[in-house]
């Protein structure tokens, strides 16, 4: 497939004096923290989507489009990540489009009895209407769990619309008979809240009953749209196999992210084995649980580390600039700054300790980070 890729120019700001730079950074941080976004209800061929937009809405470069997991909404899934100080470079340079699955936004009205919730395939078919509404030709997708599945489906169906993907806790497989039986048993012995919490968090996190686990358990159990959450949960468990293989499927750079204690570690590893190694990065995070985009910026047990955020920032910027037709000088500069020269056609390896952040000289397929 041959496509004309979008040219993007990233404008560098003029150098400032130290005091001016500090003041400007402080003002930027304050604006990001206070930005509540612009909420929109977007009509699609399959129903209405609640979408929140942050940023300048410039269409000169791709937007970052996020999609959350079951039991979360765009705010609870992504706000801590994109408000973290290490992500301010992304937030100030890109428009953020946070998409809520149908009926999953905070305060959504409960669907009536007998409501037919859209399938995962149908939800993915609603995304193009979002791009059309905001007049964006392409996006960089960031999805978690069910959201990673939806964005994968969207990318496969609309390859020209996606510059890159960051997929956290991806499971591309349909539920087998054993999984189906286990889910049926769980629905009898466990409440809906406990089923979803077990989907979101690792056994270690559940056993420790961390503050994050407790807060999400309470939020889900008291949600006014709990019936909607259940419908989305059932739909996700009825998903079809994506039939990923390295010879087709994704036409853009993909970064797979999973914690080594996450419920979907095996599924992510299996997905990685099916992907094209020349366009795929696999990041397995040591000592990380089910929601690394939250735990690594909110934990009180140790200082938050920016390793995942730095890697996401590098991947997103590479996907939006190096992988599109920038000028040669800018492409060379980005390649040099990320120590990626000569390795663009291979997956990358990173081993990071407490002083991490440097790329090793010989890339391979898996990136594993510990802290």
UniProtKB/TrEMBL annotation:
It comes from the Eukaryota. Keywords: Cytoplasm, Developmental protein, Differentiation, Neurogenesis, Wnt signaling pathway. Pfam families: Ndr (PF03096). SUPFAM superfamilies: alpha/beta-Hydrolases. Residues 333-371 are annotated as: Disordered. GO terms for cellular component: cytoplasm. One of its GO terms (biological process) is cell differentiation. Its main location: cytoplasm. It is found in: Cytoplasm. Residues 333-342 have a biased composition (Low complexity). Gene3D superfamilies: alpha/beta hydrolase. Contributes to the regulation of the Wnt signaling pathway. Down-regulates CTNNB1-mediated transcriptional activation of target genes. May be involved in neuron differentiation. PANTHER family: N-MYC DOWNSTREAM REGULATED. Belongs to the NDRG family. This is Protein NDRG2. The lineage of its organism: Eukaryota, Metazoa, Chordata, Craniata, Vertebrata.
